């Protein structure tokens, strides 16, 4: 493995991370909006089967050098799976960096056809309640706690009770951050920078949705660590649905489309971590080849045709079915 997976400090607080991290959104619950899950997961999505699959991906990631792991209260049993793996593998706190999120609750009851899979509530009461749940599972392993899908219009960044709770958490040694969502991510990122409380921002950036890039560059310059999610656009930039121009460029380089898509993220100078949302060891291995890609101007210009308007991207994302 090349030096790109060497542990390095991220942001002004110097969180120890690797350029590729693991996000467990697709592994902690039986249904999610990622394309191709029937093929990726097969028919057995029982709790034991998903736990075993999660542990296999975590083992492969750790062996490859990955040291950042990302979960959330709404990712079904993801915190539970990660906590069990940390205990079983006797991984001491501080050996890896663990980030989780609060704000959504998983309500799918492990059902594929649930009417609702998650419910959002960005309140101080939910922050306190979910932080207690996260700490019960992850304990001293928790390094970073993030607002899940913050937006300016939600009011969460102006809620004095929430900001006070986050300041207290930060004073106690846990870094605080936020993740963003929707076509106005840039406004949310700039507001977070203005507040001056946050250590990290986690945002969507990929070959289809580049609108947050300038704001993420500003956040990086201000000292925030940048974590990039949805680098393969919930499967739209993988072999399940890759646009022809991406598929062709990947074939020419003997790569998979997902690897080329993640390489685009790694090429951004402000990107601290890009998350692999792999649902299998094979997918993780494919994602990881992104670190070997030599990204250049010609490739960037060739794939620029994939860029959608932010509104188009988020409208398409909202139409994806839980599967």
From TrEMBL:
Pfam families linked: Aldo_ket_red
CDD domains: AKR_unchar
Residue span, NADP-dependent oxidoreductase domain: 54-296
Native organism: Nonomuraea guangzhouensis
InterPro entries named among the record's database cross-references: AKR2_Oxidoreductase, NADP_OxRdtase_dom
PANTHER family from the UniProt entry: D-THREO-ALDOSE 1-DEHYDROGENASE, NADP-DEPENDENT OXIDOREDUCTASE DOMAIN-CONTAINING PROTEIN
Listed name of the protein: Aldo/keto reductase
């Amino acid at each position: 493995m090349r030096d790109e997976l060497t542990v390095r400090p991220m942001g002004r607080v110097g969180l120890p991370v690797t350029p590729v991290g693991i996000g467990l959104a697709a592994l902690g619950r039986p249904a999610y909006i990622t394309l191709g899950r029937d093929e990726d997961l097969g028919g057995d999505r029982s709790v034991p089967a998903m736990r075993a699959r999660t542990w296999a991906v975590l083992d492969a990631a750790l062996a490859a050098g990955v040291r950042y792991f990302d979960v959330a209260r709404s990712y079904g049993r993801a915190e539970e799976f990660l906590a069990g793996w940390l205990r079983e593998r006797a991984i001491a706190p501080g050996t890896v960096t663990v980030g989780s999120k609060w704000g959504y609750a998983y309500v799918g009851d492990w059902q594929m056809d649930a009417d609702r899979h998650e419910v959002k509530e960005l309140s101080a009461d939910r922050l306190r309640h979910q932080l207690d749940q996260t700490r019960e599972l992850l304990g001293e392993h928790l390094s970073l706690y993030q607002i899940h899908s913050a937006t300016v219009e939600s009011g969460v960044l102006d809620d004095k009770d929430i900001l006070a709770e986050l300041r207290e958490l930060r004073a106690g040694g846990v870094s605080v951050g936020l993740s963003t969502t929707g076509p106005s991510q840039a406004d949310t990122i700039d507001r977070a920078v203005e507040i001056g409380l946050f250590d990290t921002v986690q945002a969507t950036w990929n070959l289809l949705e580049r609108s947050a890039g300038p704001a993420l560059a500003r956040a990086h310059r201000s000292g925030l660590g940048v974590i990039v999610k949805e680098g393969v656009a919930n499967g739209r930039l993988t072999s399940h649905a890759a646009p022809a121009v991406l598929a062709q460029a990947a074939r020419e380089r003997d790569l998979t489309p997902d690897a080329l898509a993640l390489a685009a993220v790694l090429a951004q100078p402000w990107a601290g971590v890009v998350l692999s949302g792999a649902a299998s060891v094979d997918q993780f291995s494919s994602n990881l080849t992104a670190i070997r890609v030599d990204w250049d101007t010609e490739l960037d210009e060739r794939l620029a045709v994939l860029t959608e308007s932010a509104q188009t991207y988020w409208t398409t994302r909202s139409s994806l079915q839980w599967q």
